[in-house]
Amino acid sequence: MVFTRAFSQLVAAYFFAWFYKVDLTDLTHDQWKLVIVRACSGTMTFFVFNIAVKLISLSKLAFLNNTSPLFATVIAFLFLGESMTKPD
After folding, report:
1. Whole-prediction pTM value?
2. Long-range contacts of 40-47 (CB under 8 A, 24+ apart)
3. pLDDT in tens, 78-88
4. Is 83 helix (H, G, I), strand (E, B) or coil?
5. Using CA atoms, how far apart are residues 56 and 64, in angstroms rounded to an integer?
6. Phi and psi for 59 in degrees, rounded to 5?
7. pLDDT, tens digit (0-9, with 9 covering 90-100), for 54-81
């Protein structure tokens, strides 16, 4: 499961980079640091999710996975200084 998903993402990323003519040599040193941090954190998250699939029930996993927008909102408020308002 891990290989199939990672390989399909690699193929899709390669296609979009080729289609939009993205040149990775244009990235600055600081941007490369962010790319590496994103790759490492994404890989850890992916492996933890797959371990959770094996260890807990699918209903609990779906519930936890679908609460990610709530966690993202709280993290954006705490660390990025975003404001939280009621929707109209």
Report:
1. 0.58
2. 46/2, 46/5, 46/6, 47/2
3. 999 998 888 87
4. coil
5. 11
6. -65, -40
7. 999 989 989 988 998 999 999 999 999 9
